[in-house]
Amino acid sequence: MGGNAVHWFRKGLRLHDNPALRDALRGADTLRCVYILDPWFAGSSSVGVSRWRFLLQCLEDLDASLRKINSRLFVIRGQPTDVFPRLFKEWKVTRLSYEYDSEPFGKERDAAIRKLANEAGVEVMVRISHTLYDLDKIIELNGGQSPLTYKRFQSLISRMDAVEMPAETITADVMGRCTTPISDDHDDKFGVPSLEEPGFESHLLPLWFEVDTLTTAVWPGGETEALTRLERHLERKAWVANFERPRMNANSLLASPTGLSPYLRFGCLSCRLFYFKLTDLYRKVKKNCVPPLSLYGQLLWREFFYTAATNNPRFDKMEGNPICVQMPWDRNPEALAKWAEGRTGFPWIDAIMTQLRQEGWIHHLARHAVACFLTRGDLWISWEEGMKVFEELLLDADWSVNAGSWMWLSCSSFFQQFFHCYCPVGFGRRTDPNGDYIRRYLPILRGFPSKYIYDPWNAPESVQKVAKCIIGVHYPKPMVNHAEASRINIERMKQIYQQLSCYRGLGLLATVPSNSSNNGESSMSGAAAGPSSVDSAQEGSAAAAGRAVTLLHLHLTTFCGKYLPNS
Amino acid sequence: MKRNQRGEEEEGGGSSPGSREPRKKKQLRQQDLEDQDESSSQWGRLPQEMLLQVFQYLPLLDRAYASQVCRGWNHAFHMPELWRCFEFELNQPASSYLKATHPDLIKQIIKRHSNHLQYVSFKVDSSTESAEAACDILSQLVNCSLKTLGLISTARPSFMELPKSHFISALTVVFVNSKSLSSLKIDDTPVDDPSLKVLVANNSDTLKLLKMSSCPHVSPAGILCVADQCHGLRELALNYHLLSDELLLALSSEKHVHLEHLRIDVVSENPGQHFHTIKKSSWDAMMRHSPKFNLVMYFFLYEDEFGPFFREEIPVTHLYFGRSVSKEVLGRVGMNCPRLVELVVCANGLRPLDEELIRIAERCQHLTAIGLGECEVSCSAFVEFVKMCGRRLSQLSIMEEVLVPDNKYGLDELHWEVSKHLGRVWFPDMMPTW
Lengths: 567, 434
Hints:
Chain A is mainly alpha-helical. Chain A is built from 22 helices and five strands. By secondary structure, chain B is α/β, with parallel strands linked by helices.
């Protein structure tokens, strides 16, 4: 009984559904909530302005909420392994709590902190609340391997125990007799930094940062905003009374006041709260029907990638990653820069990348479009490069989900069919025929009529003159010929997959192992199983093929395949 | 611990006398050494055929290490049988993430094994240096009698960036020296009509497979020369601009063997490009001559360039539309492609393809694989389609967004219905929504 508790905020920036914090309070005399501003911001190498701003807003919000219960947030700069031993001594800490981080980097960092805590005689309390489930249990259910197909994942989920209820919100009551010692100079020592502050880690900001880009954020950070948005999100769903996947239209491309993904990533919104609210709403509207798994699509995809990544420290790399197909991507920094900076000459791609840079969020179909363009569609550049750009700019891209999605979209893993290529002209045109999205984010093209706004290089000179935008002068010419690029690339993809699957036939679809799956329960042994477990065969062959491919590229000689006579 | 012939464990080596009892152990140690000699010389006396078998399973690097063990194994390493087949991987660190074949190894192969090589391929990245290195090696394969040659660009086609004459002269070395080329893969290269003539002059009896998609310097006359002379040609891949009625007739002539695969890429260089037509009679001649042949067509055209296509019956078996294709064209496909085995559509648009799919199910009785990307089909029509095709559909790859729920079926009911008709559990393809 008694003692001094410290709660370490990393993600999980909220007071609702925070079981680690709640349990830390039990019987403690004092509580201090810390956030450590790690110069290596959770493993990522570059962080854009939008992300910094969002994070700082989250911290402000947290501080404000803690003030209401007579506590404060303690922001400390440094590395956790340096900071904690100091804090343990200074504050005579007896208990340290934090939300479980499933990512390999997180686990390693936490193991080190755990060791330091043990040495200092500090009790460590870890609770799972960033994911719906205990990911290790899902993996255990799958015979010790992370599921590699979404369907397999869904079937495992349907066999798991129910999701745990969200923990009670931390209120003054919950605090009880626990207090927070706050010094007079708290703001100087531990206050939340602001972006305008001269003393702020300016070396961490990108070189092109300008103060006047600090317009009102489209996505304001913080738990308060998250909970408001949740209510709005649910209201809208109820009003529509339709839980089917909404049809894509021009408006979907714009940031929505009910969008939740960045808040889930930073943990301003508990995924479990969202889950239960969705369930309740569905039951109310559909009169007690059992909700289908598709209702939780957004949450389950997130969970899927966390599960896939948790035991794979190389998840964000191609080389040495057992689940990633080794592709002969092109190294081309110039082409990469054009894509990253929205100078490809394809208005659809450039508008999306501009929205991403300015606001920090783009619709998932927009992500598919630009990811396809960079990798298997047009530029044939490695998905790792795209992932790094998203890491810098995208508010909701955390390590597992970002890397996993890039592997998926570039057809580097999870055994996706690669035939469907998103046309950088046609796809945009079909989504927003009028072209308002383009005009909004690329004002230079405002003068083009809808007919030509997606492929302005095809517009007659007269039209370009009227639009006051000559292609090649005011706006770049298209950097590739899409027909030619997609022709070459589909051939490359086919070559690679044929080598992987040893498929010798003529079909395009059959070069990728079949996507049909059953809910087979056979364990994953890495070898193809019998006909009743096609799914495990796919899983097995996926992992085995991945391993085979990494081995393949270590050899200096490779089997010549098709060119040998049948012997 | 080493096991000797009698299967008894013994401590290896005789370098730790101190730990053993003197007299008894000394005798044993003597025996150990003799046994060791015998067993090591036994390993060393393994017949070459057995070594060959084992070595064939080893990756090259391990084989190379093994070759350092003793003279016998070194000899085995250089046996011709182990050097029949080689893939040169030519990558530059500035343009590729993958490793390249070591230059010393390449030198060794050319020096000691070039006359053993029979099945050779070159994988090059997008740098001109890699393509040049490939040509360099090719020009040195003077003593080679290749059966198979593949020039594969793994990223952008770097062979096209070489000076044409440089490439041609390197390639001609192989054509002239090999005289028994059976399989030739030269897509995306600057090969031209004269070099094809050289190929034909030296290898017309043996050539079975020729892949030359996107070789812009070849003319219809050039490829016709190949078809006229190489009567054993079974597999051919080229671009549509090289296809002609004369070519099809040449491939169907009496002297010609049955054609097995014909792959045609139809690529638009500029919007509004005009494409020539092939007469139905030419396709009919092909069918009469080679009734089982597979015709694979990949289209990369703008929607309004499909005018000349699918107006009459065409024996296409595998069809891929790499860009958006209109509803109307898909309707014509249903009407005129009775031999269709696989249909893959990258995109169509926002009008439902219900009728077109049903027609395809009706008239394409051999259809076993279908893939739909950015399209729309109502769930009812899709269920009807699957019902009509039944279990012959072994590949059904439909993006989830394609299927539009209607009053008969939502997505959940749909997957059960479809699974029922297919006789296996089926789900649409999904993309992450985060």
